């Protein structure tokens, strides 16, 4: 394609990165990454997702975080960020999940619950409750899954007092 004086677009780069992932061709993927940056295509959701997916699939988590930062600085999407928070949390890399979360300028309820859920999954109830409280202070309106996660966090820390406070809040918003 490039030999015919055609410039690849976002869709082309997305599929080329997918091919690199399948073939585990990291060198070619890194060349594509450089071309994507030069072509100012990092802010495209399709390209950003494909690039992150390729690095994650090849277990290059350091490179994944680097790309995420690049995508974020070029106007990346909160869905992309939340997926990365979730991925790090599922891998048990809560410090990385928190680092990515902290890069979000305005985290939404999905980003918050991904982070809280990760802390709960790894038996870090105190940290999950801290996040739940920070979510409240941030003005995020809790949904039913957020309340369920916070109750699980109370169970981890054996926090009856916290559980009673959450129960009162639940009654206020009447999720039953």
Automatic annotation (TrEMBL):
Pfam family, one: PPR_2
Entry keywords, A to Z: Repeat
Entry's Gene Ontology BP terms: RNA modification
PPR repeat placement: 108-142
A GO molecular function held by the record: RNA binding
Highest taxon of source: Eukaryota
Record-given protein name: Pentatricopeptide repeat-containing protein
Organism expressing this protein natively: Adiantum capillus-veneris (Maidenhair fern)
Lineage: Eukaryota, Viridiplantae, Streptophyta, Embryophyta, Tracheophyta
